[in-house]
């Protein structure tokens, strides 16, 4: 480095000065020579003149320089030294803009520029090829613009917070005022905020002149934040060959404006780009409160490109109109703000998430007259009041493979359409209601997962649900039957198809058809789920199934002949209907019970804890890639259903089988509701429940339609526990085995407590309990799977137990009474 240049770079107070630089050695006006000195390489000396476009200017520490009403003024680089409290560049003219043209590469503000929150007419013309605004001070100005064609292209980077203040006469605050052949490119750096601030005026941002009708072109690139009090003007009317304009919000960039002005542009065009991670907020509180000045943001020669994860927020006070932006539409869309409706001005496409936020002011998103609102991601609404569906259609599209539908209190749609790709999922986090039509787009549709919620169809017509297929379906599939689809069918006859599917693919398409033929069904609610081959778990809600057989035996014995699926079907009215069940190949019973044409539907009678006789006239067989069973003449209101093989139906004709222990003997009793071609019973006994021997043959009634009661006294039982099995033989030799039951003899002093009432409702008394047992008497309530549901301990001299609240679902149970050396078991029916 030469000695001359080294002398030029001698610094004072941490700032480097070049020979010829101007410094404000005194406070005063810019246009007065006595305010200035020049740097001679060693010290400041009297300038005798004011700065020009080739001079660097330093507002020295502790000095204040005023820019009077004449001008413009010029410099190369501008440095306002600190600290902000004592070093200032400003103007006392509060009526008009006073410009300083900067032709160099930097404006450094470590002091104060402007007059804080008060309008100050000091303005800057950025005229160099490349200029950066940096500093740690306070920078408030009125306008920044390119004024001259000294450089065809000017690039400005703002890397500190800047406030742009304006008055009632102000309009656009950052723009290109130079010739149409010039470009002004403005970048707001990450971490920096540029704010347009005032109580009056408009406060717009534009590139092509003050309103898109004059000046050159250029680009805005926002990495940081840009706060616009009124309009972001996306218009470029420069004549050909004028330079195009663009406005780009980068990842992490944030722009807030009251509105967009999307009027038509000239042939050079204008573009808006919001990249993934960029945010545009329209708060609608400026001079033009509508979010778009034009009827729709599709002006001639304008393009709009919004990234899939970009975000547009409507947060204005009062009403705002939401138009679709460009061909692709929004990325993320959020509706918030104070009161008012945010109303669709046409079909709108949200490719990512739609969010309706409530800050305590209950804003509403209104679908408009009959517009389509497409959503590719999550639907999040603070409450049902947040969305007004009118006659519109909400379409869930395929931009996201997995999405959620969340509205506490339940969402209401007029038309709901599933247009997701095959295998894509929309999961309900709350209930939802469709008042007109639920449509699954042909060829796709995706999965609507109920996820322990209720989907209600209010339209009673069978055509209210359109489509549904192997790729577009409703998923229930919860063992607690909480994933429910409700249809307000009323008295509307016809085949109403509940479009259930277990998973994607033709083999998993399992629709249920409710065909009302007479009467009024009211609201029809259906749930279904598949099970493992052992048919567990049995339904527990809204009705608890206690067995897969006709008694309360502890082990279900018909699982091998039962389809691996349950249905819960409820209707509120008094209809006559037919049901068509569809199930998967993988849910067929095991051989030899896996013949589809021999599988019929059966329903569970919860008060009697048994499966009813299959309704006559059923049909079953192959249905495309799945199987079906149809049953006519159904009138039962609420019941669990399943399907079983006619080769081994659930033994519903046998309505009771139990063993009663007596003094030195055991009595086995059973009853049948109906019999058909019943030749005889063979009662068999076992000491271990595995190997049985014939005990007695009891002749059957052949065919009977009335209840018949049978009993046999085993006067010579085996020591200890005895196990019994009742095998029934048809006249053609067909054998059906019962569950295994157990019993044992009582000694003469065994327990003989009495239980009443039996059947019981929710109250029960046990009398005749033994007294004087130091450990007390245990009373257990046991369900059909052998689980102890309730337990009571009776101590002291009490000989009775009064139970005020059993707290169990209707069905059959065992009440076991146990002392330290004796026991008694009583069968109890709870209605």
What brief labels describe this structure?
elongated, 13-stranded mixed β-sheet, 18-stranded parallel β-sheet, mainly beta, single chain, 831 residues, 77 strands
Write the layout of secondary structure elements.
Blueprint: H1 3-8, E1 11-12, E2 15-16, E3 22-23, E4 28-29, E5 37-39, E6 44-46, E7 57-59, E8 64-66, E9 73-75, E10 78-80, E11 88-90, E12 98-102, E13 106-109, E14 112-113, E15 122-126, E16 130-134, E17 138-141, E18 144-146, E19 153-158, E20 162-165, E21 172-176, E22 183-188, E23 193-197, E24 204-208, E25 217-222, E26 225-227, E27 231-233, E28 245-249, E29 254-257, E30 259-261, E31 270-274, E32 279-282, E33 302-306, E34 311-314, E35 320-322, E36 332-335, E37 341-344, E38 348-350, E39 354-356, E40 364-366, E41 372-375, E42 379-381, E43 387-388, E44 393-396, E45 402-406, E46 411-418, E47 425-428, E48 432-440, E49 446-449, E50 454-457, E51 465-466, E52 472-475, E53 484-488, E54 494-498, E55 512-520, E56 523-530, E57 565-571, E58 574-583, E59 599-605, E60 610-611, E61 619-623, E62 626-634, E63 638-645, E64 654-662, E65 665-672, E66 675-686, E67 693-704, E68 708-714, E69 722-730, E70 735-743, E71 754-756, E72 764-767, E73 777-782, E74 788-794, E75 800-803, E76 811-818, E77 823-830
Parallel strand pairs: 3-7, 4-8, 7-10, 8-11, 9-12, 10-13, 11-14, 12-15, 13-16, 14-17, 15-18, 16-19, 17-20, 18-21, 19-22, 20-23, 21-24, 22-25, 23-26, 25-28, 26-29, 27-30, 28-31, 29-32, 31-33, 32-34, 34-36, 35-37, 36-39, 37-40, 38-41, 39-42, 40-43, 41-44, 42-45, 44-46, 45-47, 46-48, 47-49, 48-50, ...
Antiparallel strand pairs: 1-2, 3-5, 5-6, 53-56, 54-55, 55-58, 56-57, 57-63, 58-62, 59-60, 59-63, 61-62, 64-65, 65-68, 66-67, 66-69, 69-70, 71-72, 72-75, 73-74, 73-76, 76-77
């Amino acid at each position: 480095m030469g000695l001359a240049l080294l002398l030029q770079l001698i610094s004072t107070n941490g700032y480097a000065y070049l020979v010829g630089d101007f410094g404000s050695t005194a406070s005063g006006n810019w246009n007065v020579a006595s305010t200035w000195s020049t740097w001679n390489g060693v010290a400041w000396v009297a300038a005798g003149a004011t700065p020009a476009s080739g001079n660097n200017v330093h507002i020295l520490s502790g000095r204040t320089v005023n820019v009077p009403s004449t001008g413009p003024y010029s410099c190369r680089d501008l440095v306002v030294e600190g600290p902000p409290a004592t070093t200032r560049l400003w103007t006392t003219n509060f009526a008009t803009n006073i410009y300083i043209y900067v032709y160099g590469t930097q404006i450094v503000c470590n002091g104060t520029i402007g007059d804080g929150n008060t309008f100050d007419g000091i303005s800057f013309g950025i005229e160099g090829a490349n200029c950066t605004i940096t500093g740690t001070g306070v920078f408030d100005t009125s306008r920044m613009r390119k004024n001259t064609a000294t450089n065809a292209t000017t690039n400005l980077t703002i890397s500190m917070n800047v406030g742009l203040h304006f008055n009632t006469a102000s309009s656009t605050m950052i723009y290109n005022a130079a010739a149409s052949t010039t470009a002004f490119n403005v970048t707001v750096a990450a971490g920096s905020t540029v704010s347009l601030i005032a109580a009056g005026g408009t406060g717009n941002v534009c590139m092509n002149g003050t309103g898109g009708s004059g000046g050159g072109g250029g680009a805005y690139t926002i990495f940081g934040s840009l706060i616009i009090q009124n309009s972001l003007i996306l218009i470029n009317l420069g004549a050909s060959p004028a330079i195009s304009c663009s406005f780009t919000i980068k990842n992490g960039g944030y722009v807030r404006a009251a509105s967009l002005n999307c009027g038509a542009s000239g042939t050079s065009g204008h573009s808006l780009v919001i990249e993934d991670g960029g945010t545009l907020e329209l708060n609608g509180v400026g001079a033009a409160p509508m979010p778009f000045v034009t009827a729709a943001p599709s002006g001639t020669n304008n393009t709009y490109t919004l990234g899939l994860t970009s975000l547009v927020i409507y947060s204005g006070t009062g009403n705002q109109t939401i138009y679709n932006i460009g061909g692709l539409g929004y990325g993320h869309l959020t509706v918030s703000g104070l009161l008012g409706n945010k109303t669709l001005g046409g079909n709108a496409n949200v490719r990512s998430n739609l969010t309706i936020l409530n800050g305590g002011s209950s804003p509403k998103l209104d679908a408009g007259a009959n517009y389509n609102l497409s959503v590719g991601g999550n639907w999040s609404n603070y409450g049902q009041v947040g969305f007004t569906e009118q006659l519109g259609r909400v379409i869930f599209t395929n931009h996201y493979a997995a999405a959620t539908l969340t509205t506490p209190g339940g969402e209401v749609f007029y038309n709901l359409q599933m247009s997701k790709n095959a295998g894509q999922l929309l999961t309900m986090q709350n209930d939802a209601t469709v008042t007109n039509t639920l449509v699954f787009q042909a060829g796709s549709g995706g999965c609507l997962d109920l996820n322990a919620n209720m989907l209600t169809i209010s339209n009673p017509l069978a055509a209210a649900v359109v489509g549904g297929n192997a790729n577009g379906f409703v998923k229930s599939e919860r063992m607690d039957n909480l994933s429910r689809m409700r249809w307000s069918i009323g008295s509307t006859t016809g085949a109403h198809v509940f479009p259930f599917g277990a998973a994607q693919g033709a083999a998993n398409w399992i629709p249920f058809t409710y065909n009302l033929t007479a009467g009024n069904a009211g609201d029809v609610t259906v749930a279904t789920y598949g099970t493992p081959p052992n048919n567990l778990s049995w339904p527990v809600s809204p009705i608890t199934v206690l067995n897969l057989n006709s008694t309360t035996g502890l082990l279900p014995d018909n699982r091998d002949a039962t389809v691996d699926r349950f249905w819960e079907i409820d209707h509120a009215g008094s209809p006559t209907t037919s049901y068509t069940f569809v199930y998967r190949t993988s849910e067929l019973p095991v051989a030899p019970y896996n013949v589809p044409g021999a599988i019929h539907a059966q329903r569970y009678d919860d008060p009697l804890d048994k499966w009813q006789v299959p309704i006559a006239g059923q049909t079953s067989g192959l249905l495309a890639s799945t199987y079906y069973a149809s049953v006519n003449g159904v009138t039962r209101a609420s019941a669990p259903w399943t399907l079983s093989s006619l080769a081994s139906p659930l033994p519903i004709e046998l309505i009771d089988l139990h063993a009663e222990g007596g003094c030195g003997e055991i009595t086995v009793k059973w009853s049948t509701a109906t019999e058909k071609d019943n030749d005889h019973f063979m009662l068999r006994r076992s000491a271990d429940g595995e190997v049985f021997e014939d005990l007695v043959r009891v002749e059957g009634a052949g065919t009977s339609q009335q209840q018949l009661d049978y009993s046999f006294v085993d006067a010579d039982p085996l020591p200890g526990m005895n196990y019994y099995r009742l095998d029934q033989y048809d006249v053609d030799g067909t054998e059906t085995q019962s569950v295994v039951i157990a019993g044992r003899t009582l000694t003469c002093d065994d327990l003989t407590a009495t239980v009443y009432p039996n059947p019981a409702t929710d109250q029960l008394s046990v009398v005749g309990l033994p007294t004087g047992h130091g450990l007390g008497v245990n009373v257990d309530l046991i369900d059909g799977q052998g689980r102890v549901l309730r337990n009571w301990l009776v101590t002291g001299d009490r000989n009775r137990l009064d139970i005020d609240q059993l707290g169990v679902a209707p069905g059959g149970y065992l009440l076991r009474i146990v002392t330290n050396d004796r026991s008694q078991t009583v069968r109890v029916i709870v209605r």
